[in-house]
């Protein structure tokens, strides 16, 4: 009798996972597939629900996998991480258990996040989220605060990599002045990315819009705190589609409440999903969207096709795209 495996696909909030790839390829090989649509309430909740599974398909960082959770999953033999990396996944803990983790690299374009960044920036500039709510409630112009034209304004890009450079290109097309800063950015690289290199202080003090495009790391965590936000123009708009913890959440809440800055547009948060009643949801001068940067059909199809390929390779005893190869030695 052929061996069977149990696979859990996690955090399919939109209930689309099974439509995005040919899962019958795995079912024909004895893989039973279960999809979880809701986030887990705690490590204990995740450990209980995931206990029977041999394989897990993780959707980016939606469910964190610290050591405390990995060590409770005694049946777990293999994990697939969609995307290239996730700071919320303790790959060392998996390695210690001899559990290989394969990822789904490539899939290349960052257009989805860049386009979302620009849409969010424009929503903030004209208070469009509030305008839409007003229309639905029978209102008209009353209460709309932001009335900013982009042309001639300055955009400060924090992190001018592939994604930041694409956003800088959008800004140029709208007639904006673009400056940039990050720890290792050079004048030459800034010019190539469509921006002028300035200091962090100058960027914050002179920009009408600030957009963040950094990877979350020990170096970038808490990069913008209360003192940094206090340097920004009172009319400035901050947009974050990168990772929530890059900006000190308490400091940002205080800056918005005290109108130290005019508005913020957020796609990312310290803890996701955001809990009902979170203080951000009670503020009028913040536009909120639920981490949609990579949430497009193209990305899902790439992620899930890659998940199937990784699982097939592991079933064949020839795992690919393994991010913790030391685990293979322990599993052997």
TrEMBL record:
InterPro entries: D-2-hydroxyacid_DH, D-isomer_2_OHA_DH_cat_dom, D-isomer_DH_CS, D-isomer_DH_CS1, D-isomer_DH_NAD-bd, NAD(P)-bd_dom_sf. GO terms for molecular function: NAD binding; oxidoreductase activity, acting on the CH-OH group of donors, NAD or NADP as acceptor. It holds the Pfam family 2-Hacid_dh_C. Residues 119-293 form the D-isomer specific 2-hydroxyacid dehydrogenase NAD-binding domain. Residues 19-324 form the D-isomer specific 2-hydroxyacid dehydrogenase catalytic domain. One of its GO terms (biological process) is amino acid biosynthetic process. Keywords: Amino-acid biosynthesis, NAD, Oxidoreductase. Transmembrane segments: none annotated. Belongs to the D-isomer specific 2-hydroxyacid dehydrogenase family. PANTHER family: D-ISOMER SPECIFIC 2-HYDROXYACID DEHYDROGENASE FAMILY PROTEIN (AFU_ORTHOLOGUE AFUA_6G10090). This is 2-hydroxyacid dehydrogenase. The gene is serA_3.
């Amino acid at each position: 009798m052929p061996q069977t495996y149990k696979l859990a696909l996690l955090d399919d909030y939109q209930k689309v996972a099974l439509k995005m790839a040919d899962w019958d390829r795995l079912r024909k090989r004895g893989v039973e597939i279960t999809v979880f649509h809701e986030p887990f309430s705690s490590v204990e909740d995740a450990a209980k629900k995931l206990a029977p599974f041999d394989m897990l398909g993780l959707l980016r960082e939606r469910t964190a996998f610290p050591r405390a959770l990995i060590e409770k999953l005694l049946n777990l033999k293999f994990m697939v991480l969609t995307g290239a990396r996730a700071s919320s996944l303790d790959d060392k803990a998996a390695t210690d258990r001899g559990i290989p983790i394969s990822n789904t690299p490539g899939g290349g374009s960052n257009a989805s996040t860049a386009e979302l960044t620009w849409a969010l920036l424009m929503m903030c500039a004209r208070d469009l989220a509030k305008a839409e709510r007003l229309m639905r409630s029978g209102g008209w112009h009353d209460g709309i605060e932001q009335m900013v034209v982009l042309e001639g304004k300055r955009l400060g890009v924090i992190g001018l990599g592939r994604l930041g450079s694409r956003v800088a290109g959008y800004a140029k097309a709208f007639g904006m002045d673009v400056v940039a800063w990050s720890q290792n950015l050079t004048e030459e690289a800034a010019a190539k990315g469509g921006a002028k290199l300035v200091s962090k202080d100058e960027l914050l003090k002179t920009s009408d819009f600030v957009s963040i495009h950094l990877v979350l790391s020990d170096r970038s965590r808490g990069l913008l705190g209360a003192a940094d936000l206090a340097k920004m123009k009172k009319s400035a708009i901050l947009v974050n589609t990168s990772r929530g913890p890059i900006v000190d959440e308490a400091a940002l809440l205080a800056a918005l409440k005290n109108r130290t800055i005019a508005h913020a547009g957020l796609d990312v948060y310290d803890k996701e999903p955001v809990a009902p009643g979170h203080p951000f949801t009670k503020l009028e001068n913040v536009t909120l969207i639920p981490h949609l940067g990579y949430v497009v059909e193209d990305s899902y199809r790439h992620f899930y096709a890659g998940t199937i390929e990784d699982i097939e390779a592991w079933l064949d005893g020839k795992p690919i795209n393994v991010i913790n190869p030391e685990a293979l030695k322990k599993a052997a």
